[in-house]
Structure formats: C-alpha cells, structure tokens
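Retry 2 of 3 after timeout on previous attempt. Resubmitting structure tokens to design endpoint.
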C-alpha cells in the first residue's frame, strides 16, 4: 500500500462523503477506493469510518486522522512547489467552477498566459450558472458572483462590478429610453430566472422597488445575453456581462441617475480545507485580470 496515496484517498472520501463520489472525482473504480481505505484501517489498526445508510462518517479517531492528514498533504504540496524550479511552475490538475458567460468573456480568453506559466498544469473548468457542491465535485476553486450562500466555505472577494439597466441602442431607438425605474413596466423585460426579479433602485434618499415582468425568462446568463444582443428587450445585469458591447456603444446603460446594488466576484474554496497553492495562484490571476 502506498501510504501517501492512501492518505490522499482517505481525505477525498471524507470530503466527498462516500466511496462512490470519491471514486468519481479520482477517476478510479469504487472497489479500489474501498480496498485502499480498508488497507489503511488495517495498517493503523483503527476504524476510521462508520458506514451508515446516510453515507460515511469519520469515527473520533478518523476525524483526528483526517484533520492532521489534510494539513500534512497541504504542506507536502507546498514543499513540492517550493522545491520545483520556477520555470516549471504548478503541476497536477486544477479544477475550477465558474459561470459560463463570465468565464467565456473574462477568464478563458486569458488562460493561455496562465497555462504558459505552468506547462505541467492541467485545468478542468466546470461551467454552470447554478451553485454546485464543491466538495462532491472535487472543485479546488469556484468563481461565484453575488451573495454567498455556503457559510462553511472559505471565500475571498476578487472584484466588484456595477449593475445597470441595459439594452441595445437598436432596441432603445425603437422603444424609447426609460427615465425612471417605474418606466421599466412599459418595456419588454428579459428576466434571468436564477436571480431575484425584485430590484431596489436608489437616488440619494429615494428608494424605488421594481419587479421585472417579462414574457421571456431564461435560466442561463448566456441566454439573457443573447436575447439582449438580439434587441428583444431590456435587462438588469452586471457590466461584466456586456463590457465589450458597452465599450463600443452597441449596448447602453439607462436610468443612470439611479443606482442598483453592486455585484461581487468571489473566489470560493471548499469548506473545511485549506486552499491549494494552485487555487490561490489562480484566484490571484483572475483578480489581476479584472484590475487591468
């Protein structure tokens, strides 16, 4: 038994909550995972995991072992990176989760530079507008926008974007420019169903709450973007989503005397784990991109 590999596998099993989930993340068969953990328990002469109908739970000894091994693995990774010459950079697999539209516009076009710096690194990007289970999916870092729901996650804010009321110049020339938040009721709203459809506008001490009503609801930000660019209506979104079109004048901000809540971009790391060196360097890379 390779003890180092067995310890890595044990941490993955505890994080994932089951042998099958860990096997899927590690891309090996479940019997191999079960056999390795059994060998580890035999080697230590202690039971590490309790098998229940709800999955796997560490025993008291298993929890102590997990906490120490997790730190030891992190330190081993740091030592390996420190020992490796600077020109080789990071190695292994970096698993990233991100919203498709944001990643397509602001991350993927700049990945060649990051990957050139780290020729031994493989990058696996999972694109999904919906929140995913970072531990179950084996994610190292998630780029998440808006309010964070997972209180157990470790997160670092990378950037902030303005939210705006947006439409193409073509749509506005045909249907007119709204001047007040209440005017949005007279326009065809394009609604992103993943977010709240009630928006709070502010102008000084004035507050106006508006509910976006429209015939077209879309479950993905990419759909909202496509509908706006097809001049189908008006939407509320981050400026990140249309930064290129805003710069060229194809898409315009309206109702500019009123402000909407800004939106934050967070680097989220799986709860209960130290962020890997790969994840930290990638978060710094994205943060630098958005500051440029």
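Retry 2 succeeded. Sequence:
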């Amino acid at each position: 038994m390779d003890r180092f590999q067995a310890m890595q596998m044990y941490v993955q099993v505890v994080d994932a909550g089951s042998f099958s989930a860990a096997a899927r993340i590690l891309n090996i068969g479940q019997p191999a995972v079960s056999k390795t953990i059994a060998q580890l328990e035999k080697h230590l002469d202690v039971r590490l995991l309790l098998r229940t109908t709800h999955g796997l739970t560490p025993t008291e000894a298993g929890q102590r072992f997990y906490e120490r091994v997790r730190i030891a693995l992190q330190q081993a990774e740091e030592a390996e990176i420190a020992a490796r010459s600077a020109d080789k950079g990071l190695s292994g697999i970096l698993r990233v989760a991100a919203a498709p539209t944001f990643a397509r516009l602001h991350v993927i076009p700049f990945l060649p530079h990051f990957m050139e710096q780290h020729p031994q690194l493989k990058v696996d990007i999972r694109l999904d507008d919906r929140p995913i289970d970072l531990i179950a999916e084996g994610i190292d870092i998630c780029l998440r926008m808006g309010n964070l729901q997972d209180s157990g996650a470790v997160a670092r804010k990378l950037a902030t974007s303005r939210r705006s009321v947006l439409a193409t110049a073509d749509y506005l020339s045909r249907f007119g420019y709204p001047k007040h938040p209440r005017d949005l009721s007279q326009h065809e709203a394009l609604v992103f169903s993943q977010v709240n459809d009630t928006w709070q506008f502010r102008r000084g001490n004035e507050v106006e709450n508006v509910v976006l009503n429209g015939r077209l609801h879309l479950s993905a930000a990419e759909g909202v973007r496509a509908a706006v660019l097809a001049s189908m209506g008006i939407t509320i979104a981050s400026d990140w989503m249309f930064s290129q079109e805003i710069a060229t004048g194809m898409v315009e901000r309206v109702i500019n005397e009123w402000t909407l809540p800004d939106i934050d971009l967070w680097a989220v790391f799986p709860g209960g784990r130290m962020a890997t060196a790969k994840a930290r360097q990638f978060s710094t890379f994205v943060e630098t991109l958005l500051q440029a």
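Attempt log closed. The chain has a mean pLDDT of 88.
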